[in-house]
Amino acid sequence: MQYIYIFIGGALGALLRYAFSTLNDSSGFPLGTFIVNLLGAFLMGLIGTLTITLFKKYPLVKKAITTGFIGALTTFSTFQFELVQLFDHHNFMMLIIYGLTSYILGIIFCYLGVKIGGQL
């Protein structure tokens, strides 16, 4: 049964991820990937914290959201590939900005999710 929950969550996350990928344009900054990864970091912090109380009774819903939805929504491999593409195109400033802001803001967004989840 858990596979069905993960499948449904993953399908929804993948569809949303695809919708955000349309925000990427030729300017060099992969905005869609940036947004979904920060959103995913926040949601993982929030859901991870809420799991302690809210999802204790509903572990399948937790798996659907974390492994399924957030797992399909976020993308570390695409992030890495985009960094390599920026490097190959000698867009070093964008590479540094994209890499550092993604890592730093990802940690901050996850931390905010944890703090907000602890307050609920």
Mean pLDDT: 93
Radius of gyration, taken over Cα atoms and rounded to an integer in Å = 16 Å
Between the first and last Cα atoms, what is the distance in angstroms? 29 Å
Shape: globular
Helix content: over 70%
Largest sheet: none
* Strand elements, count: 0
**What count of helical segments does DSSP give?**
5
What is the domain total for the residues? 1
Spans of at least 5 consecutive residues whose pLDDT stays below 50 are: none
Secondary structural class: mainly alpha
The proportion of residues in beta strands is under 5%
**In sequence order, what are the helices and strands, one letter per element?**
HHHHH
Family: Belongs to the fluoride channel Fluc/FEX (TC 1.A.43) family.
InterPro entries: FluC (IPR003691)
Pfam families: CRCB (PF02537)
Main location: membrane
What does this structure look like?
- Helix content is 80%, strand content 0%.
- The protein is mostly helical and 120 residues long.
- The chain has one domain (1-119).
- The longest helix has 28 residues, at 92-119.
- The radius of gyration is 16 Å and the shape is globular.
- The two termini are 29 Å apart.
Protein traits:
mainly alpha, FluC, transport, membrane, sodium, 120 residues, single chain
Summarize the model shown.
By secondary structure, the chain is mainly alpha-helical.
